[in-house]
Write a structure and sequence with these properties.
Blueprint: H1 3-9, E1 13-14, H2 16-23, H3 27-35, E2 43-45, E3 48-52, H4 53-67, H5 72-83, H6 88-95, E4 105-107, H7 109-115, H8 122-131, E5 134-137, E6 140-143, H9 146-157, H10 162-190, H11 196-222
Antiparallel strand pairs: 1-3, 2-3, 4-6, 5-6
Helix pairs in contact: 5-8, 8-10, 10-11
Protein name: MerR family transcriptional regulator
Keywords: DNA-binding
Organism: Streptomyces subrutilus
Length: about 250
């Protein structure tokens, strides 16, 4: 490896006072964050604590999340959820990323908080990690799909709680897996080429989109008008849809 490349890969390190100065916080605040386990432990060299750019990025994230109304306790819980979640490599193995048409999105924790203002809780974060929507890559978060990110944030802006969006996503996942198996079996049974499933996937997607559109049309057509006296009023606490009906997102 060339000398220039070696120097470029050298990680910059800071003593405690230097790191606090770079982050714009008092040294006592940095030590408080460390005691609260909001920062990973520094590298020790005798009695000297050495921090690096990952610690600086974490301090800037803490400051940004505090500005957005998160408490230190909440930030600590979010940090724990991130650190116990899947990393990008594990997510790729889980979801088969590599041949997918979806575009992953890299986000800072504060950018994620901006997408879902007030809804980035430890519970929702854990659910997103469990579903495989999110993974971690160092100090960054990776969302598996630009389309899912945009749709989810749009629903939240319309007033749908993120927890409900994620639960619907979990239920949709089961139906999507069944549809994928159905079309894979259909194509494989009648076409011998190795690339047939990948090549004909757009046709399967078109069938699913058309059927979903027609199904929603049927539901809307069958629903009574708001001023229809025959519609009645659901009993207090009773669901307005059937027990097996999956909300559409």
């Amino acid at each position: 490896m060339a000398k220039d490349e070696t120097e470029a890969k050298t990680v910059r390190e800071y003593r405690t006072a230097e790191l606090a100065g770079e982050a714009g916080i008092p040294v006592r605040t940095l030590r408080f964050y460390r005691e609260r386990k909001l920062l990973p432990p520094p590298r020790r060299e005798g009695r000297i604590a050495w921090y690096d750019d990952h610690h600086l990025a974490r301090l800037r994230t803490i400051a940004a999340l505090l500005e957005r109304g998160h408490t230190l306790g909440g930030i600590a819980e979010l940090t724990t959820a991130f650190e116990s979640g899947r990393d990008v490599g594990q997510l790729g193995e889980l979801l088969g990323i590599g041949w997918s048409e979806e575009t992953p999105v890299r986000l800072s924790p504060e950018a994620l908080a901006d997408y879902f203002e007030g809804e980035v809780t430890p519970e929702n974060l854990a659910a997103s990690l469990d579903l495989g929507y999110l993974a971690t890559d160092g100090e960054e978060i990776v969302h598996v799909s630009r389309r899912l990110l945009d749709v989810s944030s749009a629903l939240v802006r319309e007033g749908v709680p993120l927890a409900a969006v994620l639960e619907t996503g979990r239920r949709v996942r089961a139906h999507a897996d069944a549809l994928a198996a159905l079309f894979t079996e259909l194509i494989s049974a009648h076409i011998a080429q190795d690339d047939a499933v990948t090549r004909l996937r757009p046709l399967a997607k078109s069938v699913v989109e058309a059927e979903l559109t027609m199904a929603m049309d049927r539901l809307l057509a069958a629903a009574p008008a708001p001023d229809d006296p025959a519609a009645g009023t659901p009993a207090s606490g009773a669901p307005a849809t059937g027990p097996d009906q999956t909300p559409s997102s």
